[in-house]
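Protocol check, entry for the methods section draft. Step 1: assemble the input record (protein sequence plus ligand SMILES). Step 2: submit for complex structure prediction. Step 3: store the structure tokens unaltered in the notebook. Ligand used here: pyridoxal-5'-phosphate. Step 1 record:
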Amino acid sequence: MTNPKTRKFRPATELIHAGSLRSSFAETSEALFLTQGFLYDSAEAAEARFNGEDPGFIYSRYANPTTDMFEKRMCALEGAEDARATASGMAAVAAAILCQVQAGDHVISAQAVFGSCRYIIESVLPRYGVEVSIIDGSKPENWENAVRPNTKVMFLESPSNPTLEIVDIAHVARLANSVGAKLIVDNVFATPLFQKPLELGAHIVVYSTTKHIDGQGRCLGGIILSDKEWIEGTLQEYFRHTGPGMSPFNAWVFLKGLETLNVRVRQQTYSAGKIADALAGQPQIARVIYPGRADHPQADIIARQMSGGSTMIAIDLKGGKKAAFAFENALQVILMSNNLGDAKSLITHPATTTHKNLSDEARAEQGIGDGLLRLSVGLEDTDDLIEDVTEALKAID
Ligand SMILES: *Cc1c(COP(=O)(O)O)cnc(C)c1O
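Step 3, stored output:
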């Protein structure tokens, strides 16, 4: 048995140990409790459990020991009081919004968000009588201008997918607070290592744990983090009765993923910075957008709210779709896939894949041109990756 914790630990340490809940076998690695239900010693014990007088588990749609370990480890990393893990990132986003709005409420969202998030806001919410405003979130005054007396929720993603646009989180959080709305931040691209939305004043943080937290392309998952009052008072009943919870098997995979998150994300970010620098200024390239570079248009906000760059790079090629396809097809290490955050470097052409369903206007608004590529940098040798992109540029004629 280890000594009781008396000190506060840094993220790299919390990622290895926080939330561990050992069984009577005192196993080293986290146990996988692949069970739907739990037994009671007596009828009285069952009654006490259901009355909330005994804190044990009831049913894995509500909570499960392996999932609980994952939630607690994420809370330690994020500085959140409580969390609920979900079956996918989209289950997290949907539950975080839907659990707190009703007909007649108003939601404001940045336009540069993940496609499925935009679908929930633009297409699902209005069907249930929720008013929505979709704005260019990179302009702070747009948030103020969109506020209505019935504004309940504000939603943003920063850096955004795929153009790595930044929203000033502290600014929007202050506004949300002042009008009694809740700010939800989708923090996937920044990762919990490089950006802490709760410290910046946001109320709720959501992740697709499918991305960097798994980090090896295996399981889908998500998580919602906030204060205990909101999780228990607003989310909990909705969550228990609509069933978006994470499988314990996936939670176990994510626990192991968290143990290596720090080393993976730092190495991937190091390579991404080197690749962005190698690409910038090449004649075939109109623009490299990378949050770690001084030429990012919002470098001042990045310096205030992020403690690291990103594993993601947006590359805008001068030759449009033809150049983008020639470049993608010439790559030998980097693979084509719409996923991200993987140990394998992955590239996608948003205009014909992930952002294909947006209208031409919406794509133009978000700066998703035909020459834009989104690169998720993996764990391969940095120099092999640099060679792969610089050689592939030569295939563009
Ligand atoms: C992938 C992603 C999601 C959705 O997550 P899933 O796990 O695929 O459901 C939401 N937001 C962002 C920013 C993402 O990258």
